[in-house]
Amino acid sequence: MPCLVSANNTQILQHPPHSQIAADWQAARAYKDAGIIYNGIIEGFNGGGLIVRFHSLLGFLPFPLLSPSYSCKEPDKTIQEIAKDLLYSLISVKVITVDEDKWNLIFSEKEAAWSRFSDQVKIGDTFEGRVGPIEDFGAFVHLRFPDGLYHLTGLVHISEVSWDLVADVRDILTEADEVRVKVINVDREKSRISLSIKQVQEDPLLENVKKLIPQDGFADRSSSGVCYRGGINPLPGLQTILDELLHEDGIYDARIRRQGLEKRVLSHDLQLWLSNAPPANQRFNLLARTGRQRQKQQVSFSFDRNEARPHLFPGMSGRKETVLDLAKFVDKGVQVKLTGGRQVTGTLKGYDQLLNLVLDEAVEFLRDPDDPLKTTDQTRNLGLIVCRGTAVMLVSPTDGTDEIANPFIQPDGA
């Protein structure tokens, strides 16, 4: 800005000529139209934002348009303390509003950050992030980049917070929480990033069978005659059961084939049940679990399948079966409704007494973001999965079922 210097070296500020001010307003419009990043000096702040110098003009940068990197770097500081620390520093911004008549010049640091860093964000990428403002419809998450700073912000919609039904985002997340997120959409025209927290986690209700019970190691035979895979120790109490099975007439082999870990403790007692899958080469599959551990055993026999249960579960032939007769649905298409409004279809390949269902070629119908209790026509392929019995609410065949109009709705004018 031009100034006069007096004899005692005192600077006397002089207003810039009108022609220069007009030229600077024209330059501001050019910056806005071209989307060019401008580097300006922060000359002050007030209760709503920063005052940034643009040649002879002073523009305004509202605090909500400030990069999240400052608050994430120093979360204990108030926005006023952050603004004070930024005084007389250089800041990169974009011009987003130019109104010469109202003397209104607005900047955005977020828009400048989008131009610089959005190319580093691709669909499918995962980021570490910090939870920002939380709204009824979701939570904003600030993304941490390789330089350690949080340059961009995305939205985790309420439907992407958790695999479970979420009534209030605040029940799950708190501002400043550290989370891991996946980029599920990037709208470059509107400078928006859609994120998901649940998609970086395995679905707790629909799990891939190979992940549930991975095949590790190879089979060895113990001194008692029971085979188990290298590095796998039988669950507490299971060794005794398998040894006793080998003394049963018609059973000549018992092998521990696989083991895996559950996501949560399901029972502290040892549970053992017989798979409904048809036997292969005269071998039955037994599943055992306790705590978070699960193991799969193969039992070789030389008797008829109908005689198997009394041998495998002596004294339990009279126990109650599940009220659902799922045997007639095996290898057929079924529709499964789960807690929280989720719905999947697939081919039923097996089940157990706890109603854990094995579905092949499974497809999930995605829920309506605005009403999580409703499903849409959008789907995602899941492949071979296990539906947890504790989450199963309804099982029905896909063949022979059709959607009909509600007969209880009165027609207009009735």
TrEMBL record:
Domain S1 motif: 35-110, 124-198
GO molecular function annotations of the record: RNA binding
One Pfam family per UniProt: LSM
Record Gene3D superfamilies: 2.30.30.100, Nucleic acid-binding proteins (2.40.50.140)
InterPro entries per the UniProt record, alphabetical: Lsm7 (IPR017132), LSM_dom_sf (IPR010920), NA-bd_OB-fold (IPR012340), Ribosomal_protein_S1 (IPR052757), S1_domain (IPR003029), Sm (IPR047575), Sm_dom_euk/arc (IPR001163)
Residue ranges constituting the Sm domain according to the UniProt record: 321-401
CDD domains: LSm7
BP term (GO), one: mRNA splicing, via spliceosome
The protein's name in its UniProt record: LSM domain-containing protein
Organism of derivation: Clitoria ternatea
